[in-house]
Amino acid sequence: MDLLATILISIVAFEHLYFLILEMFLWTKPKGIKTFGLKSKEFAEDTKVLAANQGLYNGFLAAGLVYSLITEDTNLSIFFLICVTLAAIYGSYSTQKARLFYVQGIPAILALIAILINN
Which end of the chain offers a freer environment for a tag, N or C, measured as fewer CB atoms within 10 Å? Predict the structure, then answer.
């Protein structure tokens, strides 16, 4: 795997590790409430189990991407980057927030392009 692809995959993995932290541990804190534009602290408390589940899935994406880098398995990288891209498309569509796609989807797509150009 070339350096650019490795850097881009690392960025996507880091983002998803950060999402895990935000959703599992900071959801009800001011940082989580502000980041996700939640209506209130009460709403955050009511939805924290759902957010933790979401965070766990983001952790799995990060772990898969890191594992693909360690093993230098391009096919595994492609698989997880496609998963991230699909999650970004669905997330931005379902929340009506295009920003979600730019933050999550664009880096994954750029990493995919970097991999595919070098194969």
Answer: C
Which residues, 6+ apart, have CB-to-CB distance to 61 below 8 Å? 13, 16, 80, 83, 84, 87
Looking up tokens 């590790």 gives 17
Place of tokens 């709403």: 43
Which token pair is 14? 């880091």
The DSSP secondary structure of 82-93, one letter per residue, reads: HHHHHHHHHHHH
Residue of 83, 92, 48, 50 whose CA lies nearest to 64: 83
Amino acid found at 54: Q
Average pLDDT, the chain: 94
Q: Taking the domains of the chain in order of start, what are their residue ranges?
A: 3-117
Q: Tell me the helix, strand and coil percentages in the chain, rounded to 5.
A: 85, 0, 15
Q: How many CA atoms does the CB half-sphere of 3 hold within 13 Å?
A: 0
